[in-house]
Amino acid sequence: MDLLCAARLSCTPADYRGEAERAGELYPQEAILERVVEVPGEALRALASLRNNGIKNRAFGFLSGSLLVDCSGGSGICRQLQAMSRAGLAEGLGDFYYVPHTALNERLLDYLPVEDEGAQQIKRPYAVSLSGISGGDPIEAFTGYVGSAGYFMWGKVEKILTKISFIPQLINKYNTQIDILIKLDNKYIISIKYMDITRTVHMGFSAVNDYLRYGVDYAVLMHPYVNPGVHRSVANRLAELEISPSGYMALDLVNEMLYIYRFPRHNTYLSKYISSHSQSMALRSYIESL
Predict the structure, then answer these.
(1) pLDDT, tens digit (0-9, with 9 covering 90-100), for 18-65
(2) Is residue 92 domain-shared with residue 139, that is, in the same domain?
(3) CA–CA separation, 88 vs 159, rounded Å?
(4) Separation in Å, CA 104 to CA 65, 173, 213, 245
(5) Are 150 and 123 in a shared domain?
């Protein structure tokens, strides 16, 4: 498939499906684990910066979590991406470098010999084209598009649920509706809170906190696109709060774009709170019952 559709902002669901399948075939997780030992330390730090949205280069995203980084200016992390390409963790495509989602696996990065530099200030988001997405209700439009693509954030989509008003297994504990719930083939569960900040003063932080307490693997806060300054501020504020594992995205239905300001990180509540672990089991029981 043509990976440069990401830079042209013209990728369709079929393109995203093709990219994810290609990444799995050419860059399987097992091969990535073998290749990573050949990567110099500086390039490994760049890999971590990519996962943490900490680069200055213009970059485009795929729904799978893969990235296409613009190196036409030759600055930023381009030299490190070249080293990654030689090691088989990235791929040069003219002025761009493609980094497959398998090389950005959080569990892999957690075990690399790279010091945690703490929360990094978000410079710019990863732009993801949603060419052909329908209008109307944002939640239904987005889930319809992701369902058609079949992949989202490092996994193949097995099930998508929207606007879950009641979960019997979490009776008396389910206080905040999950707007979007995605189960992946790797058994991870992603929940997304869509908060229209153009109609309310609430940002959705408390809702995302509830999602994390429910024991999902990844939680994402999504706002309608307003302007870059607002979204950078929200993304950087999230990094300072207990809900810092949550991701942050802005959805622009008018221009058919999704902006990823923060990739989600695995839910730390699962290891910190026994209640979140038990609620996670109840949530998974609910999903399997459908």
Answers:
(1) 999 999 999 998 899 888 887 888 888 888 889 888 888 999 999 999
(2) no
(3) 32
(4) 8, 34, 25, 16
(5) no
Is the same domain home to 121 and 141?
no
Residue (of 143, 57, 53, 59) closest to 104 by Cα position: 53
Q: Are 199 and 247 in contact (CB under 8 A)?
A: no
Q: What is the pLDDT of residues 74-108, one digit of tens each?
A: 888 999 999 999 989 999 999 999 999 999 988 77
Q: Give dist(CA 221, CA 195) in Å, integer.
A: 8
Q: Side by side, which strands form the sheet with 126-129?
A: 91-93, 96-99, 67-70, 59-61, 126-129, 257-262, 247-252, 218-224, 189-194, 178-184, 157-164
CATH number at residue 204: 3.40.1350
Number of domains in the chain: 2
Give yes or no: residues 144 and 24 share one domain.
Answer: no
DSSP reduced 3-state for 206: helix
